[in-house]
Amino acid sequence: MKYEEAVSRCWAEIDVDALLENYRTARGMLAPECELICVLKANAYGVGARQVAKLLRAEGAKTFAVACVSEAEEVLDEVPDADVLVLGLAGALEAERAIRRGILLTAFSENSAATIAAATIAAAAERAGKMARVHGKIETGLHRLGFDPADVNALTALAKHPLVRLEGVFTHLALRSHESDERQFAALDRACAELDAAGVRGYRKHACDSIGMVRYPERHMGAVRTGAWLYGVCPYRYEHPERCRPVVTLKARVAQLRTLPAGECVGYDDSHPLSHDARVATLSAGYVDGFPRFNGKGEVCIHGRRAPVLGLVCMDQMMVDVTGVPDAQEGDEAILLGGPITVDEYAATAAMNRNEALSRIGKRVPRVYLQSNAEPVIRMP
User: Considering 160, 268, 297, 363, which one is annotated as catalytic?
Assistant: First the structure.
């Protein structure tokens, strides 16, 4: 796809310089022996897992984390020499494929450990001539996935399987309060002490995500998993927000302009009639492209000025009031997210998590990777 085609309707611009700077900043927060695991799940939070993996691998990143085996396979197709950790469930057939490709799997329960240790995985390892590479997850307070820290017998047995190599033990912080986080750290420590007492050693311990990375530098342990930070989502209340640079700008073209009288309704919904004679722009993006299905709220930016969303956002288009943007013309760029429309504002208006706001950017939206002294790179998700 040519650049002119990519930016003809709706597209996401990815600031590669900012992405790489965020990676370097995160790397600089860690001790040299602490591994930085770059999280690429959900298509790298909407930024594009394949291209992000390629860029970060060239920058020195070695280990990535994803949610499922299919995501891991996608990353390995782009960077075959990377290590990729699957954080979630893998069924028997998926686990067999994973073993064959050297993908790291997470054991988090007796059943998941059995899947990994059972004939499916053992046979796959034997046929492929490879060990099954595993991280064990400990449930310490989020109550999502993980072994009970008081009972790691199944994980211990898995770690001692002759065809299994336990490479990591981790948990995920709920981040409710400092006190609850400390309880989770302590629970992970207890579980690891049980493993150590059983003779299971040589693994990396990790607990911190992007928020934990900046909040608990003394708890980086053997590895830190960072996702949101890489893509410009700065932890709340961090004292140096300028160190986490925005990466994503979502844009759309003005497809048509018209003038409507006061009292007229715009779009499907009649709950927000115009309070004034208005100049209305139809933008070539809708909720399928990732913009929230606002109804009479939210704003975009055209020529540096705010333009309120009118009516209900449609599947493929949306209408905005450009009365206050007199120089707006058909074909102009509108910024939906990024620049003056920060991810914090965008997500707050939509009552959604900031990670969700980025991850919602649609599959039909071209990602345009812009880097200093380089030609734009265009990729579809």
Answer: 268
